[in-house]
Amino acid sequence: MGSVSLKIGDGTARFQRATLCSSAVNILMIFSVITTNLFALYAFTASPNQPQHSLLHHNNAHKNISLISEQVSLILREIDLSQKKLAQMEKELLGYESIDLSRPNIASELKLFLQRHQLPLGKDSRTGITEMVPSVGHTCEKNSDFLSQFMNYKVFGACPDDWSVAQKLILKGCEPLPRRRCFAKTVSKAGWYPFPDSLWKPVGNKTVNWSGLNCKNFECLNGKKLSRECIGCFDLVHGNENVRFVKAKSKNDFLVDDVMALGGGGVRVGLDIGGGSGSFAARMADRNVTVVTSTLNVDAPFSEFIAARGLFPLYLSLDHRFPFYDNVFDLVHASSGLDVGGKSEKLEFLMFDIDRVLRAGGLFWLDNFFCANEEKKQTLTRLIERFGYKKLKWVVGEKVDSVGSGKPEVVLSAVLQKPVRA
């Protein structure tokens, strides 16, 4: 579960810089309006010190109007120049500019990938496009040296055994990754159980790739507290996993069958955000519900373990837009993995994407979300209320933070129903 609760970058930077730029432009425009009005007021209200001929007065007025026009034009040019400078600064700060392929340390494979390629049969009649444009995250530009290191491989050869390098790039916002033309390391899958027996059978140590990890077996992992939701979560026989979601330890632990009953029998496909070792998806599979589990391999081979259980792991960070169409899920389940670095803006982005993929009438199950303080709880509560979800269950309680302070902390569990919007 810890795979999605990482502090991925500083999501507030773009908001602070954008706000700064917008404020500067607004101040400049207000100043120009005030200045223009002052010039106009001076031109049309100022009286000459001595009586003058009406023609001379007309000429002076004409000169004043010309002067005002010149000043206004100058101010408008300054505003336009300032806006261009601010836009360029924003591009440089946020990394919107394309990667400079002329750098000497850029890998040749990266250069080839980032070039535009003409479609082999010419213009596509349905979409109108004429070339293939590479897709790569804009923050890759800020990690171009690291990215070039990742792209140094032999074409049609074996990929370097460096998945941890790829994950670091993903966590820096550099996704999708451009590596394409090499063969990933294969691991023996001997000893896998057939479905559905695989859901609750132990996974063998030889069926996953342990490179880049401190632990080299599941026995080692089961002795660690990887996150609030993954304490011994790879022990499917003797640990807590075999009773999760079917046996409650506190009032904040909702049972699968109770939540599904709230859905009126309409739960068929779901999404589990940061599902740890996949036990929620396994419980739902027992009830013929298909659940996709988003995860990352942080300190443990979560993705491979979930796949070994016959379930569907989705390898991506929560800074990434969910690769699903709108209104496709009947249920979205999330716990403290929803805490994306404690940034309110990033949480808002994530909530909007959850709302996008959840169908009208679908259920959003917030499961034991740790609220470090009252402010955090209020922030989440206000955000949920803005979406207009119906509160089917809402329980606030306390649980011991077994990973952090070890003290009781406030947790929020809720089942919310998405409304039908006009």
Automatic annotation (TrEMBL):
One of its GO terms (molecular function) is methyltransferase activity. SUPFAM superfamilies: S-adenosyl-L-methionine-dependent methyltransferases (SSF53335). GO terms for cellular component: endomembrane system; membrane. GO terms for biological process: methylation. InterPro entries: Prob_Methyltransferase, Put_SAM_MeTrfase, SAM-dependent_MTases_sf. Keywords: Glycoprotein, Membrane, Methyltransferase, Signal-anchor, Transferase, Transmembrane, Transmembrane helix. It is found in: Endomembrane system; Membrane. The chain crosses the membrane at residues 24-44. It is a single-pass membrane protein; Single-pass type II membrane protein. It comes from the Eukaryota. Signal peptide: none annotated. Belongs to the methyltransferase superfamily. This is Methyltransferase type 11 domain-containing protein. The lineage of its organism: Eukaryota, Viridiplantae, Streptophyta, Embryophyta, Tracheophyta.
